[in-house]
Amino acid sequence: MHRLVPEKLVTVITTDVLEHRLVAAVSRRGASGYTLLRARGAGSDGLQSGNLEVDTNLLLKVILPPDRMSDLLDDLDALIGQGYHLTVFVSDVAVLNHEKFERPLEP
Q1: Is pTM, for the whole model, over 0.85?
Q2: Which residues of 16-32 are buried (b: 16+ CB within 10 A; e: fewer)?
Q3: Model confidence over 33-77: pLDDT tens digits?
Q4: How many CA atoms lie within 13 A of 8 on its CB side?
Q5: How far apart are CA 67 and CA 46, in angstroms?
């Protein structure tokens, strides 16, 4: 049987204008890495086609040890408080090779 270790997956959908701020927050909060993708879709803010720079969203995924998640959520909540539109959700995940997620990103 494989040894799976519980971690947290934080997923953020927001405007690509926030890319650099999100990456800085992820690094500052000790994440080991992140995945960033361009995203298209529709929701409460209408259609986000990705065809124009003004309607391009991104999807950010970060796996963190549970003890590092709260500070990142505080940073995301602060952006929401500044008027930015973010969809943030947290999932419980189990990972192999959990040591990979314990080492913070290299600057």
Answers
A1: no
A2: bebeebbbebbeebbbb
A3: 999 998 766 656 655 555 555 567 899 999 999 998 999 999 999
A4: 17
A5: 35
